[in-house]
Amino acid sequence: MAQTLDQQRAALAWGYATAAMKTGFAKKYKNLAKGAPALIMNSGLMPTLAFYNSKDPEHKALLEDLLAGLSTRLKPSPQPKNFQEFMVHLQKCKSQDYLRMTDEALELLKWMRQFVDAVDTQGA
């Protein structure tokens, strides 16, 4: 039986959260993951991604996880290889594809927000 979309997102988010909580910046990553949905809803996906790219390694770690998750789940064509290519893709895609990317980012972050707490409380 195939996995549901939520199971696929949860698997990705668990991997990202687990890896992030093993770093020296786990607390900051956790705070960023919890605040990211509000930032996306208030500012938009592209401005949020650009903001994360302009900041410190903790912001960039969350950015990389989001871009990897979006690429894995939605498989944009052609596949963006880095932040610059991803931003160009978002600029050129159809409006429904941009909205789908935004929705997918929010859904992935929903899981990440929960898992950064779960992984942390397990002493990872």
Q: Keywords, please?
A:
124 residues, 6 helices, globular
Word description of this protein:
79% of the residues lie in helices and 0% in strands. The chain contains 6 helices and no strands. Helix 1 (5-20) runs antiparallel to helix 4 and helix 2 (26-43) packs across helix 4 (57-74). The longest helix is centred in the C-terminal third of the chain and has 27 residues, at 95-121. The relative contact order is 0.20.
Summarize the structure.
This protein has about 120 residues and is mainly alpha-helical.
Q: How many whole angstroms does the radius of gyration measure?
A: 14 Å
Reading the helices and strands in chain order gives HHHHHH
* Overall morphology: globular
Q: State the end-to-end distance.
A: 31 Å
Portion in helices: over 70%
DSSP summary, beta strand count: 0
- The residue ranges in which pLDDT falls below 50 over 5 or more consecutive positions are none
Specify the number of helices.
6
The mean pLDDT is: 92
Based on secondary structure, the structural category is mainly alpha
Biggest sheet overview: none
Strand content: under 5%
